[in-house]
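User: Please work through this fold.
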Amino acid sequence: MNEKITLQIDTAGELRAFAKDINSGRYHGQPDLTVKLTADIDLGGLDQWVPIGCGGHFFSGAFDGCGHTVRNMIIKKDYPGSYGLFGFCTGTIENLTVTGSITCIAGDVHSAVGGVAGLVDGGQINNCTADISIDSQKRSLGMYAGGVVGQLREGTICDCRSSTRFENVLGNFIYLGGVVGAAEDAKITHCVFDGSIQILGDTGYYIDAGSIVGNVRGRITVSDCLNRGTVDASDFDCGFLTLGDIVGRWEGEDAELQPFSRDTLRRTASSMAKEEL
């Protein structure tokens, strides 16, 4: 039986030390780990942030932001992987706001990028806000990109808000969502997107984009979600783009869009004018 561990974090140094412990395998796969923030944390003094859960290790415990904000997270994505405040999470993250930026400085097709977490597998994200910029810099950002979570597998996201600003997004294959990039066998409820998405493309490029989630498949429910953001796809030319107000593309027969989620702009286009959703 794993020993129950509770940690309190109130400085940038302590948060960075915790990330190093996770990434070195100290708490690998330990569900009885509880972490609580006791103050707002400013990461502005760091050159860049190394996500919590990378290098083959992941976070499996419960992380409670207790209503606090982690500010000025700076990530420079230069290698395939999972990027966000958390990289790979199988546990719970809740009551947290993240601000900052993720910038693509080396293109690849294998990454998962999100403000709170890159990859969530069987985990839960509750009552979290991402107010960040994600700049593709006209490079391939990765396969999954979301304002809160890049890729969600067999997990839930509830009561989250994304004010993320996606800029210069270019990818030869990408699932892009204002809240979640792609979700499979998952549940997304009571989420709001009020950020902006700028999509670029050229011959042969393929993007599924939605204000809440870009692509869904398997047994999944999207309910009570709202889009207040904007999407600019006017520079997407001669490729394949599926754009949805709530969900970009539905795949499979078990996906369900419940009432009170608006889904009015789902369509495929090779070139389209700017839409204000």
